[in-house]
């Protein structure tokens, strides 16, 4: 991916809000609303069902020409030829992931400090996910990252940075000027009654924030 446009509105799945819907249905609604990237995040699903679900959702993403990223599970990403993989600081090292999956796979790494960000870039990361930039209930292990740290990370690396954690349509404007190229969200899309409309509204707000960044 030569362009960073796929990182503008990065939707991370969470089956916590499924209700009567399937995850496939929710992802389709997010794609209809303009999500530019989908990350499948499954912490509880067994490997067989994770793989089956991943294959189905990647096929859907291909129809929309949107990259499909697997969270954490390098084996699943390798087996199904996922477009990308995202790993946290407690997961497999970025350098080892790159060796395992090769150079054609998108590699995202979570970072909370400038030191972590520089290391991830040196080890082959294509982008960084930095957060939590606002308080969030979606990830129990999320640590707070200040606006100043977010900006410092953006300035310290040459790879694109996206912000994650507690971002909503109302507060995304507060990230203007930080240097990010996009945002990653969970509940701001998947916890909403009308996922498609919520995605559209959030994308519009994000584009406005990014335009403010470039002024």
UniProtKB/TrEMBL annotation:
Its EC number is 2.5.1.3. It comes from the Bacteria. This is Thiamine-phosphate synthase. Signal peptide: none annotated. 4-amino-2-methyl-5-(diphosphooxymethyl)pyrimidine binds at residues 39-43, 71, 110, 139. Belongs to the thiamine-phosphate synthase family. It comes from Absicoccus porci. 2-[(2R,5Z)-2-carboxy-4-methylthiazol-5(2H)-ylidene]ethyl phosphate binds at residues 136-138, 166, 186-187. The keyword Transferase applies. Pfam families: TMP-TENI. Its cofactor is Mg(2+). Binds 1 Mg(2+) ion per subunit. PANTHER family: THIAMINE-PHOSPHATE PYROPHOSPHORYLASE (PTHR20857), THIAMINE-PHOSPHATE SYNTHASE (PTHR20857:SF15). Residues 9-189 form the Thiamine phosphate synthase/TenI domain. GO terms for cellular component: cytoplasm. NCBIfam families: thiE (TIGR00693). One of its GO terms (biological process) is thiamine biosynthetic process. It catalyses: 2-(2-carboxy-4-methylthiazol-5-yl)ethyl phosphate + 4-amino-2-methyl-5-(diphosphooxymethyl)pyrimidine + 2 H(+) = thiamine phosphate + CO2 + diphosphate; 2-[(2R,5Z)-2-carboxy-4-methylthiazol-5(2H)-ylidene]ethyl phosphate + 4-amino-2-methyl-5-(diphosphooxymethyl)pyrimidine + 2 H(+) = thiamine phosphate + CO2 + diphosphate; 4-methyl-5-(2-phosphooxyethyl)-thiazole + 4-amino-2-methyl-5-(diphosphooxymethyl)pyrimidine + H(+) = thiamine phosphate + diphosphate.
